[in-house]
């Protein structure tokens, strides 16, 4: 795919602030990583991502996981099972999600002042009700200024030397910054609630309306569902309680 890289100095602030589905078959992959770990953070395993690759070679990938271990409790296709409650720090939710966009081989490598050829959209559902969704959206042009933009440092540094750069990061639904995501307002997220959350990641072509960057045709998209379940100890206690009730009923009978 050949697309021109367009530089607009007046858009740098917009690009930095703006960026925090196409149906396709999903697959589990291991995205490009540095020093044996997923580059979104130290120690995060680079496996079991749900990924979609367009015929251009552009790839989007998502993964739901425990914040402390880097892996979900279990997984079925693009459904990731995680516990409710807080992580070991007693501050952040027990689970996070990782996302990564990997461009086609040979994609233009932006410098400090330029945008790439891409527009990225991250949509996160904050409604725990299964089958229902309330999405917050963070979207914008991919820029070399983005804090989650990583250029390939050279041969042997990543698992795939031909990948020019990636956009890669981790997030959780407890971040206060979600208040500013569209639609602006509180999320109502409660880490103790059992439920299901959908997360979507879409990469599109970057086009311009005059000098304003806008989302063009979608290239590739993927989605995952994160299902929160009670912590094992809580679930075990609930199971014991149910067994006790059944036994009491049998005695009464």
UniProtKB/TrEMBL annotation:
Residues 228-251 form the Ice-binding protein C-terminal domain. Pfam families: PEP-CTERM (PF07589). Residues 1-26 form the signal peptide. Keywords: Signal. This is Ice-binding protein C-terminal domain-containing protein. It comes from Lacipirellula parvula.
């Amino acid at each position: 795919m050949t697309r021109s890289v367009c530089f607009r100095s007046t858009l740098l602030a917009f690009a930095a602030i703006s960026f925090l589905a196409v149906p396709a078959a999903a697959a589990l992959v291991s995205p490009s990583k540095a020093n044996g770990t997923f580059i979104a953070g130290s120690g995060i395993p680079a496996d079991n991502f749900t990924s979609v690759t367009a015929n251009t070679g552009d790839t989007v990938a998502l993964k739901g996981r425990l914040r402390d271990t880097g892996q979900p409790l279990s997984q079925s296709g693009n459904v990731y099972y995680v516990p409710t409650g807080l992580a070991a720090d007693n501050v952040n939710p027990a689970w996070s999600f990782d996302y990564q966009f990997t461009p086609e081989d040979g994609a233009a490598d932006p410098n400090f002042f330029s945008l790439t050829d891409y527009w990225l959209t991250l949509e996160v559902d904050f409604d725990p009700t299964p089958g229902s969704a309330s999405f917050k959206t963070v979207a914008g042009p991919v820029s070399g200024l983005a804090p989650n933009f990583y250029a390939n440092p050279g041969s042997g540094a990543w698992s795939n030397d031909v990948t020019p750069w990636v956009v890669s990061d981790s997030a959780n639904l407890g971040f206060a910054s979600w208040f500013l995501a569209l639609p602006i307002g509180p999320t109502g997220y409660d880490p103790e609630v059992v439920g299901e959350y959908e997360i979507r990641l879409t990469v599109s072509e970057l086009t311009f309306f005059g000098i304003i960057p806008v989302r063009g045709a979608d290239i590739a998209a993927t989605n995952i569902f994160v299902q929160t379940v009670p912590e094992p100890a809580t679930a075990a206690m609930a199971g014991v309680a149910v067994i006790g009730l059944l036994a009491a009923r049998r005695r009464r009978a």
